[in-house]
Amino acid sequence: MEEFSNRTYSRKELTAFAEEGILDGRMYKKRLSLFGLFLSAVFIYTACMENAVPSPKEPGADVSGVLLYATNDVHYLAENLHDRGSRFQRLITEQGGKNIDAQEGILEGFRFSVKRESPDIILFNGDLTYNGERESHLAFARYLAELERCGARVYVIPGNHDVNNPLARSFFKERTQHVESASPREFERIYRNFGYAEAISRDRMTLSYAAEPLRGLRLLMLDSNKYRSNWILRRSEVSGAIPQSTRNWIRRVALQAKKDGSLLAVAMHHSLMNHHPWIREGFTVDDAPTLQEVFSELGIAFVLTGHIHVQEISQRRTASGRTVYDIATSALSVYPHQYGVLHLIPGEGRWRYTVQAAEVEAWARSAGIQDERFLRFDRYAEDFFKQDSINMLKRRPEFAFLDSGERRALEELVGVLNTRYYAGTADKNSQDIFQSEGFALLETYRFDFLYDYVQTIIKGIPPGDTELSIPLR
Ligand SMILES: [Fe+2]
Predict the structure, then answer these.
(1) How far apart are CA 415 and CA 420, in angstroms?
(2) How far separated are the first and last CA of the chain, in Å rounded?
(3) 347 CB contacts (<8 Å, ≥6 apart)?
(4) Which of 326, 343, 364 corresponds to the end of one domain?
(5) Distance from the CA of 76 to the center of ligand 1, in angstroms?
(6) Within this chain, do residues 308 and 420 fall inside the same structural domain, yes or no?
(7) Of 93, 97, 115, 125, whose CB count within 10 A is highest?
(8) Residue 191: inside a domain, yes or no?
């Protein structure tokens, strides 16, 4: 995908850019050159000790009470692929909200939550790496091994950025340079301890697999990516699909789970249904209505997804009269840096889904970190994201005739609204938006793309986006 420039873009291109993270951000002051070294010391400080962590539930343990974290779109870039130099500094302002600059702190904050709450299972639902760099995969797998030492079982699937990616690059001085990307076989090898080695069933065509982390619970981890033609296309294909042969395999796994009386939790990177009038092509898996029917018929009530970077739950009542949910958890790399929490509450006969943010400030305080960004992470991260939205707006030619006060009001509106939209809360707390000067300007001028966008976000469509109760079938 090309880098964002000053030309006018279509909606489709803009949504693709947003997903690829090629919208503008703010240049932050240069960081300490010893930052990498400093963080290495921090990792040692906070690492889970073998003898000090709770044991994960044994594979034969019962599913009742199970706590599962669902996270995605980490977009990790290995520290040894950049020098924090001028090209990297430019990169971190071009990420559509992805905070690559603070990724180590975000991952430490997530690990802090894992240590505190001891989830049984953690899913990473694709886009583990920035652009599929082999080095990033290797470094990220080391982080996952640390998470498992904290007492969780970790399972991964690839996203559209992760495999056969011709855009894999390093960033040194003023230059980017091509680096090796992981092939499908390498992906499977690097993450053998995070799903592939313990798979109870594998799909022959894709990197999909089924696992049984606990007695009575099957995970169906679906590879919905189309990386086979990436080298010909010279980019990573954004859209996704589940081939017919994989659907046949899904059917066999789901029927076996039913026969064995096991619950099924299903994850894939791409959306199972549309989440927004703008987030469709390239985001929702191909032939989605048929796939929704297939899942419904197999008794699959929900699918955990990522890819859109927005916190959004959609539902559809299928022909069989059942409701299927697509629970899209927002990107861990994007504000508010949250992840999904799925809890099977004993005796209640239902899954409960909520979201929690990585506890970066709590980690920074407990680890004695001096970096102000991490000590005041909530404010820093919100400002980073808001500024990114504002910078995007600044480039739009439609606003050239506004005076500076009007522009500021509109920028404030978009900054605040985008922040809430990505967090999944825009439909809950938008009364102040209606009273704002920016909204009044929007009502007056009705800027084509922005007016539709704001209206759709504020209205929201049931169910809510940050919590859900799903009865067991
Ligand atoms: Fe993605």
Answers:
(1) 9
(2) 42
(3) none
(4) 364
(5) 13
(6) no
(7) 125
(8) yes
Domain housing 348: 11-364
Residues 258 and 155 in one domain: yes
Average pLDDT over residues 376-385: 96
pTM to 2 decimal places:
0.87
Same domain, 350 and 444: no
- Residues 134-185 pLDDT 10s: 999 999 999 999 999 999 999 999 999 999 999 999 999 999 999 999 999 9
Whole-number Å distance, alpha carbon 71 to ligand 1 midpoint, is 12
CA atoms of 126 and 268, how far apart (whole Å): 7
Query: Ligand 1 mean position to 407 CA, how many Å?
Result: 32
**How high is the mean pLDDT of the chain?**
86
Residue 3 within a domain: no
Strands, E assignment, 376-454? none
Q: Which residues surround ligand 1, an ion (CB under 5 A)?
A: 127, 159-160, 307
Task: Kindly state whether residues 166 and 274 are assigned to the same domain.
Answer: yes
Ligand 1 centroid – CA 441 distance (Å): 34
Structural tokens at position 250: 């899904």
Asked if residue 338 lies in contact with residue 353, where contact means CB atoms within 8 angstroms, the answer is: no
Q: What is the CA radius of gyration of the chain?
A: 22
Question: Tell me, what CATH number does 326's domain have?
Answer: 3.60.21.10
The answer to whether 158 and 208 have CB atoms below 8 angstroms apart is: no
Out of 364, 399, 423, a domain closes at 364
What distance in angstroms lies between residue 300's CA and the mean position of ligand 1's atoms?
Answer: 23
- Residue 63 Cα to ligand 1 midpoint, Å, equals 30
Ligand 1 centre to CA of 366 (Å) is 33
Q: Same domain, yes or no, for 326 and 268?
A: yes
List of E strands, 338-392? 338-344, 350-357
Residue 464 pLDDT class (50, 70, 90 cuts): confident
Residue 472 within any structural domain of the chain = no
